[in-house]
Amino acid sequence: MVAIDFTASNGNPRLPDSLHYIDPSGRLNAYQKAIYEVGEVLQFYDADKRYPAWGFGARPIDGPVSHCFNLNGSSNYCEVQGIQGIMMAYTSALFNVSLAGPTLFGHVINRASIVACDSLSTGAKKYFALLIITDGVITDLQETKDALVKASDLPLSILIVGVGGADFKEMEILDAVKGERLESTTGCIASRDIVQFVPFRDLQSGEISMVGALLAELPTQFLTYMRRRDIKPST
Q1: The domain containing residue 16 runs over which residues?
Q2: Residue 234: what pLDDT?
Q3: Is the model's pLDDT at 90 over the cut of 90?
Q4: What is the pLDDT, as a whole number, of residue 171?
Q5: Residue 235 domain-assigned?
Q6: What is the pLDDT of residue 204?
Q7: pLDDT range class, residue 142, cuts 50, 70, 90
Q8: For the CA atoms of 19, 20, 24, 25, what is the dihedral angle to 10 degrees?
Q9: Does the global pTM surpass 0.90?
Q10: Which of these, 20, 167, 17, lies nearest to 99 by C-alpha position?
Q11: Are the C-beta atoms of 67 and 104 separated by less than 8 Å?
């Protein structure tokens, strides 16, 4: 699953200094690189190659600001076909929404949680990864914590790529880099860490790959979930 930040802090997509600028030469922007590089790896673990894809922080045509809208423009279904489907839906959305704000994560995490919960209720043996690509500091930190604590019992991991030059200290809080589990408003503690955050700027030297850094904790998160549920490999 993919969720893309369309808040106004990204800059006017029609100008070269925007993080959402589509270069006529074909050079990928940071959002496109994250979609392509992460998707190229994770697609091999997905049988039907159909991916739920959302945008947040924008105003769709003739509508209010939405913090979770279907990237393909459909009001009925959110899935796109393959990595190219995500790329095409992303590019199309840039010309069909007005960038707005603020930057809220809670809505897309809750939406992803619904997908994971629905799958769990049908007995499907699936594990989900939600890739969030964002340029800004979130303004719903506690709501996001609440959503993550609730999601920690579901077959779900959250992969966050931070693009641009913002201060991403709050992302490190969500990532529980100091080993402290997230706590919800009601005092519930996350059953496990499900977040991995990587700032894109730290990877531009080329010494560390985005995919390697972003997916570093995913195997452990997956195994922790399986062990808690006592789900064993098929023989």
Answers
A1: 2-228
A2: 79
A3: yes
A4: 87
A5: no
A6: 61
A7: very high
A8: 40
A9: yes
A10: 20
A11: yes
Q: Is residue 234 part of a domain?
A: no
For the chain, how many structural domains are there in total? 1
Residue 65's pLDDT is: 96
140, part of any domain: yes
Residue 62 burial (CB count, 10 A): 5
In angstroms and rounded to an integer, the radius of gyration of the C-alpha atoms of the chain is: 17
Indicate whether 208 pLDDT > 80: no
Does the residue 15 lie in any domain? yes
Neighbours of 230 (CB within 10 A): 6
CA dist 156 → 41, 109, 151, 212 (Å): 17, 10, 7, 19
How is residue 212 written in tokens? Answer: 């390697």
Q: Residue for token digits 């039907």?
A: 48
The dihedrals phi and psi of 117, each to the nearest 5 degrees, come to -65, -40
CATH code, domain carrying 86: 3.40.50.410
Q: Is the pLDDT of residue 202 over 80?
A: no
